[in-house]
Design a protein that fits this description.
The chain is an alpha+beta fold. It has two domains: 4-201, no CATH class; 273-398, Histidine kinase-like ATPase, C-terminal domain (Heat Shock Protein 90), CATH 3.30.565. It has twelve helices and nine strands. The chain has helices at 30-61, 68-92, 96-111, 113-116, 119-123, 129-143, 146-164, 171-237, 246-263, 278-287, 305-326, 364-375; strands at 4-5, 10-11, 275-277, 293-297, 302-304, 330-338, 341-348, 379-384, 390-396. The strands form three sheets. Strands 4-6-7-9-8 form a five-stranded mixed sheet, covered by helices on one side. Strand 1 and strand 2 form a beta hairpin. The radius of gyration is 39 Å and the shape is rod-shaped. It starts with a strand and ends with a strand. One of its GO terms (biological process) is phosphorelay signal transduction system. Residues 308-397 form the Histidine kinase/HSP90-like ATPase domain. The chain crosses the membrane at residues 39-61, 68-86. This is Histidine kinase/HSP90-like ATPase domain-containing protein.
Length: 398
Amino acid sequence: MEPAADSIGVQIRPLAGRRGPERRPGMAGPSDQALHWLAGWYAIALRLGGAALFTVVAVLAATRQTSGWWLGVPLAALCLWSAFFARRVRRYGLSPVVVLADTAVISALALAQQHLVPAELIKDNTTWMLPLACTSVYILQIALRPWLGLTGAAIVVIAYGIGAGDPADGWLLLIETAVAAGLVAVIRGGARQADAVVAAGLQTERQIRAEEARRADEREQHRQLHDTVLSTLTMVAAGAFAEPSQALAAQAARDLRVLQGLAGPSAAPSGLMPLTDLGPQLERAAASTDELSVRLELVPVTLPSPVADQLVACVGEALRNVERHAGTGQAEVTVTGGAGWTIVRITDHGRGFDPSVTPPSRRGIRESITGRMLAVGGWAAIASQPGAGTTVTVSWPA
């Protein structure tokens, strides 16, 4: 017996206990699946509650003309079947096989109702068999595809009419079937519409995140190019290297390694980023400036590796700016912080500048320093005045 609700194209989760053989869900979303899970409990309540209630009612409504064997055996079978039905649905969900088997059991009882119910109750349509048949109709509509549920309901209606002695007596069941089928269709439609809205929202969010990641990667590549190749070419064009220079060759080699890194695949994000000691990286950044003497004041600081890489890149760009533009041969890098946080200040006493008049085309500060820190959740600020030097402050977290 398959636990998948083939009739609705989705597997109903077992209500408890072991899982039966699984099938993959079709197009149904989480709301639809939750509805079917609740339908399983509803079906159990209908069948168990109905069996207990209608057994008591049948015994109380019995007359002397009613055979004890005719009444006792079917009612015992109904109670046993209800217990098996509840156990099966609780373990494996509302499968079409168990639902159709339930339809067969109720239909058989309906066919035998003249032996179970006093004739006057059948004539007045007040027999307990009518609500029992209604429970089968409800279970059919909530568990099966509409065409299969309606077909099963038609069988129950016909069996009830034949058992009552007049097929027209099933008209109340027809109304119950139409109402139940309509309500279930509305509820399922609303659930699937809600799933569609949520799925569309999630897809849009994924697209936005992918576009943001693409743009962030693009900005990072621009920053790397600005800090390496463009910086080197600018120095060459300005005449900083009038003759062959080992410093120029070393800088060009570093630029080449950066370009090769851009061409390689991006590292996959890790759920648990390793921590990196900031000190050795800052020492390497300070040593990479050939014409600038850098005094370091360091304290032990550990940061997530991607954050440390971006912060050190900011410090390196700030030192290169001092080397190229400040008109001084000295700078200071002061670090404060600890495990998971830091504030780094790069200070020079050179000619300074007015940050408010920096043209938009100059991307060094805006992208290579401020943009980098914002991209990793940090913060950067530049304080400078003409003739009063410059202080660049970067910190993480912001």
